[in-house]
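Hi D.,

Good news: the full-assembly prediction came through. Inputs first.
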Amino acid sequence: MTPKPSRKTFSLAQRQAIWAYVFLLVPMAFFLLVRLYPAFSSLLLSLRDYRPSREVNPFIGLKNFQDIAADAVFWRAMINTLLYTVIGVPAQLILGILVALMLQGINKAKGLFRAIYFMPYVTPIVASAWVWQSFLNQNFGPINQLFTLLGLPNQPFFASPYQALPSVAAFVVWQQLGFQIVLFLAGLEAIPRTYLEAASLDGASGWQVFRYIKLPLLNPTIVFSVVIGTTGFLQLFAQVVNINFGDQGGPLNSTLTVAVYIYKVAFQDFKMGRASAITVVLFGIILLITVFQLRVLRRRVDY
Amino acid sequence: MRTTPAPRISSQQKWLYVVLTLGSLLTAFPFFWMLSTSFKTYSDVFQPGFFPPHPTLENYVEVISRTSFLRWFLNSILVAAGTTFSVLFFDSLVGYTLAKLKFPGKEIIFVLILSTLMIPTEMLVIPWFVGTVQLHIADSYFAIALPGLISAFGVFLMRGFFEGIPDELFDAARIDGLSEFGLFWRIGMPLVRPALSALAIFTFLGNYNAFLWPLIIIQSASMRTLPVGIALFSGETGGQWHLIMAASSLAVIPVLAVFAVFQKQIIEGVVLTGVKG
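Then the structure:
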């Protein structure tokens, strides 16, 4: 343990390697025991009829996967999750770029606007979800009060199987938009002024500057936003659970996501083997989509 | 180009200000609605109108006296702060080791850590639950904090920042007889301070808001974190919106107060972690 003998017996390079392993000991134990081993153990659980209350949990092969393939609620959750992603990711990307462009165009109060748009992102999701429930309430919510004043029919929003999913998506975009704006504003401000000045000297219009200079140079930020946004929407949980806490994923499973369904199957029905099988499917989908996105989107960098 | 450019820009800017103001009102309005409802009486909630006709603080008194609200708040602060300190220390240590020390197996270890970023939390919570129950540590602060104590994302971030420091600085101090840990702690750490504060903000926010794992692992009411406490309380009140909005306000106001003071640092920290990652 004392450094003295080691100084004599080990070379400098060996000493450095030993220290490196010492520094990595606790973190590597953590990554193995708390990340990699549980992921592997989920794979094994997905092959068992695992219920936490029982002593014996039989190996059933791919039965869990066959069951979820035949489970209409699972498919509903899957379709909903893809819908959230397809609505949410482009919406927050486009709105984020638009507001960032507007913020870049003003001189005063830029910091104030940036802070206001960022507020929802730091707010606890649980609290803001309950606020949105009241905000879009059919009977007393201010949006429906406005509709009444304008002579429009009241809308059920979260209470309707048809309107609930888009309403939840709007809530998530509201909550995430500040992050997107801040990200794109940073990306825009990193573009060298000389490029923009050269373009305007050449008589480029505002749209041309955006299309041929800003947009290509924003590409790394767009890739980041799309990849992070997609993995976020594919794992949507807290927002959905809290928007309809009494009937999580309701009404009629219209807002149910894969993550919420995993939670319900594992911790309300206690069918942990089947829930693990769903997590394996989710993992595969996230992996495929991320790899695909990185391949396709990165290619556009070569301008 | 016949007219002077100044007035044209200012009229264009006027429109930008109009649109941005409308957008920010829309963004902030749910917060005003939350506050106004939190001061309404039960029956006034269902009356049309924005301002409370009979403003009262009774809802706040009721939420604080009926629930362990302050305890939940402290639990959240404790878990988030403990996690943040652990992440700052271990993520920097690993980041430094991977960036600055030479040893066999370095690339494999880095790839191994990075690969954990791809695993969705949903895939881990079931084995975590089974494990903590078997170890009889469920319903403890340690169990709530455990999954977040080291983050692969932070390792990746800190490694990037340590790589930016020239090797000569460390070599010189090494010749002066500083230990390997001393090199990390006394030379490396002070030089990555901006990255540390960014990682601290990111980690604290994420853990303060964490919901899925705390919801699963917390069993007793006194161990609830703020998000879990609010969710279960609001679920139990059965549509008593005046109370739910008071509880939400109590959760939101401290966060927004801290945000108002440190907004510049917080936003820049999020940008720094976002752009690097």
